[in-house]
Amino acid sequence: MSMLPARHSLFDEFFRDFTPGFFIKPLHGDAPPAQIKMDVRETGEAYQVEAELPGVGKEDIHVEIDGALVTIRAEVKQFDQQGQDERALRSERYYGLVSRSFQLPQEIDREAAAARYENGVLNLTLPKRRNDGGGQRLRIE
User: Fold this and answer.
1) Are strands 93-103 and 114-118 parallel, antiparallel or unpaired?
2) Stretch 42-55: mean pLDDT, rounded?
3) Alpha helix (H) ranges present in 21-97?
4) Buried b or exposed e, range 43-57, using 16+ CB within 10 angstroms
5) SHSP domain: from which residue to which, for each copy (predicted)?
């Protein structure tokens, strides 16, 4: 057992109980994670990527492929809405950009790549580019 204090120490609990209502948590949860969590699997013909992007609109997700380098970028917009007959006592919002790049072992065929976004999960199918029998031989002059 570690003798180091836990992340939420006794002092945190004391101040939370001592000053209720002073440190108010956001109504919509914490800010999104600093990094996109993902799973990458390889099949014989393609790479399958699942990236978690909860609360992000499909139009705010951008995927770029450059050879074997894949970049996923998302603009996160979280805000609280207020009704017409309400008075705002507190309003919180979060805007930010999260991005993640990773290198695959083989180049990707961009024309055959496909993306689907459903229930906060981005699914990418990235087919491997076929080799045409090796590199091109240069003519020496």
Assistant:
1) unpaired
2) 93
3) none
4) eeebbebebebeebe
5) 29-141
